[in-house]
Design goal:
The complex is a heterodimer of chains A (about 260) and B (about 140). Chain A is an alpha+beta fold. Chain A has helices at about 1-5, 15-30, 35-50, 65-70, 100, 135-145, 165-175, 180-185, 205, 215-225; strands at about 75, 80, 110-115, 155, 245-250, 255-264. In chain A, strand 5 (about 245-250) and strand 6 (about 255-264) form a beta hairpin. The N and C termini of chain B lie far apart (about 40 Å). The model of chain B has no long low-confidence stretch (mean pLDDT about 95). The chains are: A alpha+beta (about 260), B mainly beta (about 140). The interface of A and B includes residues 8, 13 and 29 of A.
Chain lengths: ~260, ~140
């Protein structure tokens, strides 16, 4: 099936998403000096969250810096822990009016802004695989609709098919400038106790791959206060979340959506 | 040993490209309205949506835009090649071509490295454009 999906790329031995994101990640290394030292902070940080989440596939399977460094290449520069999981399962979100939601048992997560941008171009023709991707315009639209800036966000749930996707998405949303990711992620920024928690379920790298529903469901659950040991706030030495940013992404960085959720 | 890698799927759009390859010619569509040179072949220009097409023969020289080193065989035909280097080559004429880099080790490949085409004749019906490091920068256009 992978061969059928890959078209004539398969003639040259190029297949699927890992190869495509490896091309993008390599160009980003060249353009703004990112690399495995940055992506390691994402893989290890998200695994730390997964170990607070009993539902996560990687719960009970800690990942150290050394584990990351010693992990096998899948398609270089991406190692095994840079790749998302493969998961059977499901997850659902109920969307309704705020008026109806207020009568429900759980407190609502309120949509305060949305944006989408779809550059569409296949990765082999892309000249923006190192950014700005569709996340730039999707983020600008969502922040404008909500009337806030990245400084107002308490946590992020970022579509993480690969570690590099997390970096380029946060970069294009304006959380740091190109190439500043390495510094930004240092010191446990995205982990429990960090100043900007990211992918607090473990994400698709370490919880489960439910496409865009992994980030958005976790964003809503965190706003509702239903996350147990990994709940943002005093339990994890983080800010109690008033606003959470969630993202989705498709193809090889060919589409991006951003949604901002707030407490009611 | 019979060739056991995937073969191109020939269609009316890409037939001139693959027929060109058989004669060691790297042919790209050029829009007869806006001049954009494109790959892969398609009936519409992705820049201006014109259906006007002329075919241009590339000099076969360019630079590595980006590359990925496969350590996993997603198809058994590539198992013996591991690790191998897939690259997007930015041709001097403009288009980006997905191909493989040969003639150097994967850890010697760099983005923006000059390369030129090296034809691999698979059989009487198929030749593949691969790229190898170009010796020196002389006579090579700046990107």
């Amino acid at each position: 099936m992978l061969v059928d999906f890959s078209g004539d790329d398969a003639v040259f031995g190029h297949f699927g998403a890992t190869g495509g994101y490896a091309l993008a990640a390599r160009r980003a290394m060249h353009e703004f000096g990112t690399g495995p030292e940055t992506w390691k902070r994402i893989a290890v940080g998200q695994r730390t969250w997964a170990n607070l989440n009993p539902a996560a596939m990687m719960h009970g399977k800690p990942l150290t810096d050394a584990d990351y460094d010693n992990a096998r290449w899948v398609v270089e520069p991406l190692r095994l822990p840079d790749n998302c999981l493969i998961t059977d399962g499901g997850r659902a979100i109920v969307v309704t009016s705020l008026e109806r939601a207020r009568d429900l048992k759980q407190p609502p997560a309120v949509i305060m802004g949305m944006g989408q941008h779809n550059p569409s171009t296949a990765v082999a023709q892309s000249t923006w695989m190192a950014g700005p991707t569709g996340a730039r315009q999707a983020g600008e639209a969502a922040f404008a609709m909500a009337g806030i800036t990245p400084d107002d966000v308490d946590a992020c749930q970022i579509y993480d098919c690969f570690t590099y996707t997390v970096e380029i998405t946060l970069q294009d949303y304006g959380f740091f400038k190109p190439g500043e990711g390495l510094d930004w992620f240092q010191g446990g920024t995205i982990e429990p106790g960090g100043r900007m928690p990211v992918n607090t379920s473990g994400g698709q790298l370490s919880e489960a791959y439910f496409m865009g529903l992994t980030p958005i469901a976790e964003g809503a659950m965190q706003i509702m206060g239903r996350c147990g040991k990994r709940q943002l706030g005093p339990a994890t030495r983080t800010r109690s979340p008033a606003i959470i940013l969630c993202s989705d992404n498709g193809g090889i960085l060919q589409s991006n959506s951003c949604i901002l959720l707030r407490r009611s | 040993m019979p060739y056991d890698k995937p073969l191109p799927k020939i269609n009316p759009d890409n037939r001139p490209f693959w027929e060109g390859c058989r004669g060691h010619e790297l042919r790209f569509q050029k829009c007869s309205d806006c001049g954009h040179v494109r790959w892969p072949p398609s009936p519409l220009c992705p820049c201006c949506h014109s259906t006007g097409i002329t075919w241009l023969v590339s000099r076969g020289m360019g630079r590595v835009y980006t590359f990925a080193v496969y350590h996993t065989a997603y198809h058994p035909g590539f198992a013996a090649d591991l690790p191998y280097t897939v690259a997007v080559v930015a041709l001097d004429e403009g288009p980006h071509l997905l191909t493989t880099i040969v003639g150097c080790k994967p850890d010697e490949v760099r983005c923006d490295m000059p390369v030129d085409v090296l034809w691999e004749d698979v059989d009487e019906t198929l030749s593949l454009p691969r790229f190898k490091p170009f010796p020196g920068d002389k006579e090579h256009d700046e990107p």
